[in-house]
């Protein structure tokens, strides 16, 4: 059956197929704002009767429609909204502590790190981090490590939503925050963050293997959402030249239901535990160079990035 999953598979189909991996379980999703794949992932999961959906994001107004949709499907699902700006490490630590202290979240079965910003103008956070790196990766690095005590074991999963944007850039080891502002490029910064997502999964697998926790990263596909709000015709052309042009084929657009499917296979399919690999695209494990760069699969760089991340955020983690 797994071989039949692909481009056209929907999130609802996967939730139905893996219903026993949804019912009664607890899922945490970052970035579940209305109209995005985080919201679509949560709504699909709601159709499988989970016990709890923990939604982590910045804005009540943008997440409330997702909460309303979940309650329309099944009012018995416990929906916990945790407000957090993933670009602020102080805010992330506060949110993590809120989750740890909440007795209504006794554990977490699956954590889906979905939030991101794409191709925004140059901006540094209050912590001095480049915005795409902070919101798309460093915030998840800190959140995941802080709430790890609640992640179920064995069988827990940590899913990092990346994209084929990793093809644009590896990690800028000497200047990840583009302190030389003249060197800033929207797609290089996006690519760095998306490469970091994959390397994070690789290192999590190395560190958590003995605890029976597995991590996967993925490319959801091309789809319309608020993620594209900064895109101009010029940036779109640059994306074609720098990222999509690697494969030579402009990808077809997916619906939100199709776009959230790869996340859900990574989160739910028990068969993946017996498979090698960390990267999924179109619902399949792959190393196809049209979606994943060699630098994003380098185990040495994964360990190196963990150390760099600890240095940047000023915390050591023993996961």
UniProtKB/TrEMBL annotation:
Record flagged with keyword Membrane: no
Record's keyword terms, sorted: Oxidoreductase
Matches recorded under InterPro entries: NAD(P)-bd_dom_sf, SDR_fam
A Pfam family hit: adh_short
Gene Ontology terms for molecular function: oxidoreductase activity
Keyword Metal-binding (UniProt): no
Family assignment from sequence similarity: Belongs to the short-chain dehydrogenases/reductases (SDR) family.
Matching PANTHER family: RETINOL DEHYDROGENASE, RETINOL DEHYDROGENASE 11
Protein name in the entry: Short-chain dehydrogenase
């Amino acid at each position: 059956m797994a071989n039949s999953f692909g481009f056209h598979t929907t999130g609802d189909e996967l939730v139905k197929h893996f219903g026993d991996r949804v019912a009664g379980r607890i899922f945490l999703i970052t970035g579940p704002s209305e109209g995005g794949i985080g919201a679509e992932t949560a709504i699909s999961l709601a159709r499988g009767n989970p016990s709890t959906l923990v939604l982590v994001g910045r804005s009540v107004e943008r997440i409330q429609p997702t909460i309303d949709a979940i309650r329309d499907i099944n009012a018995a699902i416990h929906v916990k909204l945790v407000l957090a700006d993933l670009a602020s490490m102080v805010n992330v630590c506060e949110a993590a502590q809120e989750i740890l202290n909440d007795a209504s979240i006794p554990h977490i079965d699956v954590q889906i790190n979905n939030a991101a910003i794409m191709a925004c103008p140059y901006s540094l956070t209050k912590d001095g981090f480049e915005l795409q790196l902070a919101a798309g990766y460093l915030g998840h690095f800190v959140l995941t490590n802080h709430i790890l005590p609640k992640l179920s074991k064995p069988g827990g999963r940590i899913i990092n939503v990346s994209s084929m944007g990793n093809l644009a850039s590896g990690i800028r080891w000497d200047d990840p925050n583009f302190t030389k502002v003249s060197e800033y490029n929207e797609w290089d910064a996006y690519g760095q963050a998306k490469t970091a997502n994959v390397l994070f999964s690789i290192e999590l697998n190395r560190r958590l293997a003995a605890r029976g926790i597995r991590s996967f990263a993925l490319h959801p596909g091309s789809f319309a959402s608020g993620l594209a709000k900064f895109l101009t015709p010029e940036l779109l052309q640059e994306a074609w030249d720098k990222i999509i042009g690697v494969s030579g084929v402009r990808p077809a657009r997916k619906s939100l239901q199709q776009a959230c499917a790869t996340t859900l296979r990574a989160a739910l399919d028990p068969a993946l535990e017996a498979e090698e690999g960390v990267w999924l695209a179109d619902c399949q494990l792959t190393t196809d160079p049209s979606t994943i760069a060699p630098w994003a699969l380098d185990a040495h760089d994964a360990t190196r990035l963990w150390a760099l991340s600890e240095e940047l955020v000023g915390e050591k983690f023993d996961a």
